[in-house]
Design goal:
197 residues, mainly beta, YmcC-like fold, disordered N terminus
Length: 197
């Protein structure tokens, strides 16, 4: 389950960076919105309804210089930032830019985990609000985006799921994720965000 969540979250980061405009509509950012030394740290924990802890740890991403261009560290990999600011070309994207309260769309995702398991998600998404939200890293203006649907995989797993993402344009990322999937609850929260002065 943790592998599925980690892969899914890596995909989210690739498509989830934005900048806020004065009109209250959030657009996808450009390469210029990032700087070397910018850093995000999340803590995460996944627990079954029986209390079994399936994942527990931290995830750190940082903007670095990579072969002369900006890169972002994701685990042991470094991906060019140009990849995460590239518009997502999908009829069913994770984020349907621009973000604005009240917007609705369909999200579909197919994935393969490190062990070869394949799976898919199909969710209805809606931006519920844009307001101040507080997490361990601080208080930020954030969109609340709710996804409801189903996840299935090639090992016969099938579960209804609900995900709530708190997305803060100021940090170009999500600050909290709460996921309920069958008998599993996963929470990830930003505990640190920093950038050079």
């Amino acid at each position: 389950m943790k592998i599925q969540v980690v892969i899914f979250l890596a995909l989210i980061l690739l498509g989830a960076c934005v900048s806020q405009t004065e009109s209250g509509i959030t657009q996808q950012p450009t390469l210029a919105d990032y700087q070397i030394g910018e850093k995000w740290v999340w803590k995460y924990k996944g627990v079954t309804t029986e209390g079994e802890v399936r994942s527990d740890g931290t995830d750190t991403r940082e903007i670095v210089s990579f072969d002369g261009v900006l890169g972002i560290t994701i685990g042991k990999d470094t991906i060019p930032v140009t990849e995460i600011v590239k518009p997502e070309e999908s009829e069913t994207p994770k984020y349907d830019w621009p973000l604005v309260v009240g917007k609705k769309w369909k999200f579909e995702n197919n994935w393969t985990s490190e062990d070869g398991t394949t799976g898919s998600q199909s969710q209805d998404a809606e931006v519920l609000s844009y307001q101040e939200e507080t997490v361990e890293a601080g208080t930020f203006m954030a969109y609340t985006i709710k996804y409801t649907g189903k996840t299935t995989n090639s090992r016969g797993y099938s579960a209804d799921e609900t995900e709530v993402w708190l997305y803060a344009p100021a940090v170009k990322n999500f600050i909290k994720l709460t996921q309920n999937q069958g008998d599993f609850r996963y929470v990830e929260e930003l505990i640190e965000y920093s950038k050079p002065e």
